[in-house]
Amino acid sequence: MNFSIYQTIKQRILFFDYEPGQPLNEKQMAAEFGVSRTPVREVLLRLEWEKLVSIIPRAGIMVAEVEFNQLREVFQTRAPLEGLLGRLTAARINDFYLSKLEAVQQRCETIMKTRSRRTLLEVDMNFREVMHEVVNNDSLRNISDLLYFQTQRLWHFIFDKMDFDLLVEDEIEYMSRSVETFRDKNLDKAENYRKQVIFADLNRVRNIFEYSPDIM
Question: Which is deepest, 71, 73, 118, 203, by most CB within 10 Å?
């Protein structure tokens, strides 16, 4: 599989450059990337497996819709995996990676000025990426990332329904408290806090979908 094309198309989906339900044209994509349709098709099949693309026989290819009822179970499944990621990070982290996490947190703090939605999503991804570097467990990374990217699209989809400043403040607090548990090597606290964050996200999104039926 062409990893560069895969990353480009996936990023466009995650950041809503390609919107939910938008048709995707293999031929046009192949022309854009200067390749045959085969590598594009391989990428789209991979993204279908990741639940980011829908391929419907005789109907075509499109970006998967964002549906809370389907993703609720994904949130619930993510919680123990993210808890394990937090626990292993606390167990294995060193000063070098603590500095990397703090650098991501500092970048997050600048979002209050730039008010960039894309940057908010990027720093959240970057923070988890550093944790995965610490843990160095490909099986955990593959499974947890698969679920993470499915739920991550919800946030971009409903930004207009949320207080952006509050979102940024919550993200900064999340990073600060996470770094604190990692620095203290408190495995139980690191695990439980990450689970708590996932369920808090689930409740927040549930409330927005329940009271904003127009986004369904």
Answer: 71
